[in-house]
Amino acid sequence: MPGGLRPGKLGSVESVLASFDGVQALPRLGGMARPDGVAIVSERFWAFAGVDGTLREGAMPARRERAGRIPLVRGLVRLGLSVSPLFRRGGVAKPRERMLLGIAVAAPLLFAFLPHRLSLITGLALTLGLIIWLLRGRTLALHGAEHRAIAAAEERQLAETWRGAARPTRFAARCGTNFAALVFPIALALQRVWPFAPTVYASAAVVILSLALTMELWLAVEASTKRFARALLLPGLGLQRITTREPRLEETRVALRAVESVLTRELST
Questions:
Q1: What CA–CA distance (Å, rounded) separates 52 from 245?
Q2: Could you give the 3-state DSSP secondary structure of residue 61?
Q3: 267: which strand partners?
Q4: DSSP H or E segment with residue 258
Q5: How far is CA 170 from its chain centroid?
Q6: Which domain holds residue 131?
Q7: I need a surface site. Which of 102, 170, 253, 265 has the fewest CB within 10 A?
Q8: 74 close to 24: Cβ distance less than 8 angstroms
Q9: Buried b / exposed e across 109-147, counting CB within 10 Å, b at 16+?
């Protein structure tokens, strides 16, 4: 049931994870860390495992195939789907947190009325504040745990990681930190060359176009095997040394419980 809440079943998790290690093709996973747990998402499902042992589960919004083929639009659609568990009712975030995130997203639209230098300073301050708020509490270690759990799925080391016998990397090429490291220079460059007078609509267009262009670049980098393309991820991977922390085994297991929930539903339907 979307947004459902049930206790995590620790006793059976390792055996289920071991069965997944023998599956040839697993669905692609993503995730996000919170101060109180880890969310793991696939194309169809999401799960949030709390540090208190609870597990919330839900279904992802249906992907629109036509929009997924249109350049620029497809990136925005993918970005919106990736954060939907955070903003939807019954999802990962509480109502107050959803409100604060909404304000943070809308705030850049008001920067159009500020002088360029003040707009830049205000934007950086808001971004820094948002990052500090998002990475509060145990989020840094759980962020590393999220990456480790997803890497364990990709390397078919889920059971070994649960036992602590394997420790896949805590750094990830698909992390939102990498996206942020790309979007800020693109947004600044676009703002400098934007030909229209500053208005709320123009500011919104800059924000949306920056996100769309960054997603197109990110998708191209993901699909490329060339070193030059992969080098674009280096700033974000460097930032992950700040935005992640080496997780303890118990924190990695929190993320693995969410992985188990998502993969169980993916492979049973």
A1: 20
A2: coil
A3: none
A4: helix 249-268
A5: 14
A6: 4-268
A7: 102
A8: no
A9: bebbeeeeeebeeebeeeeeebeeebbeebbbbbbbbbb
* Residues in Cβ contact with 59 at an 8 Å cutoff, skipping those fewer than 6 apart: 2, 44, 45, 46
Of the candidates 164, 177, 168, 165, the one whose C-alpha atom is nearest the C-alpha of residue 150 is: 168
* Pairwise CA distance, residues 28 & 24, whole Å: 13
| Confidence band, pLDDT 50/70/90 cuts, at residue 59 | very high
Helix (H, G, I), strand (E, B) or coil at 31: strand
User: How far apart are the two ends of the chain, measured CA to CA in Å?
Assistant: 14
**Dist CA 7 CA 179 (whole Å):** 33
Number of domains the chain contains: 1
Mean pLDDT, residues 31-60 taken together: 93
Q: What angle do CA 152, 143, 253 make, to 5 degrees?
A: 50
Most distant pair of Cα atoms in the chain: their distance: 61
**Position 78: which residue type?**
R
**Whole-number Å distance between alpha carbons of 17 and 160:** 9
| Band (120; pLDDT cuts 50, 70, 90) | low
pTM of the model as a whole: 0.80
- Under DSSP, is residue 135 helix (H, G, I), strand (E, B) or coil? coil
Mind listing the pLDDT tens digit for each residue in 155-169? 999 999 999 999 999
Output 104-111 pairs: Cβ under 8 A, ≥24 positions apart.
104/130, 108/203, 108/207, 109/200, 109/203, 109/204, 109/207, 110/200, 110/203, 111/203
